[in-house]
Design brief:
Elements (H helix, E strand, L loop, with lengths): L2 H32 L7 H4 L11 H12 L7 H8 L13 E7 L8 E8 L5 E8 L1
Antiparallel strand pairs: 1-2, 2-3
Length: 133
C-alpha cells in the first residue's frame, strides 16, 4: 500500500474515532441529565406528577428509591411522612401505596409510570418498584 493510501486510511480512522467519541459523550450526557437515578430530595419529589418534568426528576427519584432500598422496612407512616400522601387512583388496587410519576419516559409514550409500595403483614415495606401501566 502506498503512503498516500495509508494517510487516507489514518484520516478516515481518526474521523470514525472522533464521531464515535462525540456520540458516546452525547449519550452519556443524555443519561446523566434525563435518566440517572437521583437521591431523595423532598422539594424535587413534590413537583407535579401529572405531566412529569423536563428532567424526569420524580421518575429518577423513584428509580433511586427502588435501587437503594431506602423504603424497605419502613412502616406506612414513615413512607407517608417521606413521600406525602399518594394521589387518588383506581390503578393497582392490590398494592399498599401507589404514586403516579407521570407519562412514561420516551419520545412517544401512551402509558404512565408509577411507584408501587407494598407492605407485609407487620405493616413494613417489602418492595418499592417503578412500573408502567
Amino acid at each position: 500500500m502506498s503512503d498516500a493510501a495509508l494517510a487516507i486510511l489514518r484520516k478516515i480512522g481518526s474521523r470514525i474515532v472522533l464521531i464515535g467519541s462525540v456520540l458516546f459523550v452525547l449519550f452519556a450526557a443524555q443519561w446523566l441529565v434525563f435518566r440517572c437515578p437521583l437521591p431523595f430530595v423532598a422539594s424535587l419529589w413534590s413537583v407535579d406528577s401529572y405531566d412529569g418534568t423536563t428532567f424526569n426528576t420524580r421518575y429518577r427519584i423513584a428509580d433511586g428509591l427502588e435501587l437503594s432500598g431506602r423504603l424497605e422496612g419502613k412502616d406506612r407512616g414513615e413512607v407517608l411522612a417521606l413521600l406525602g400522601p399518594p394521589p387518588k387512583t383506581d390503578k393497582f388496587p392490590e398494592h399498599g401505596l401507589v404514586y403516579r410519576l407521570g407519562p412514561g419516559r420516551g419520545w412517544t409514550s401512551l402509558d404512565y409510570e408509577w411507584l408501587l409500595v407494598d407492605f407485609d403483614s407487620d405493616g413494613r415495606v417489602t418492595t418499592a418498584e417503578v412500573v408502567s401501566d
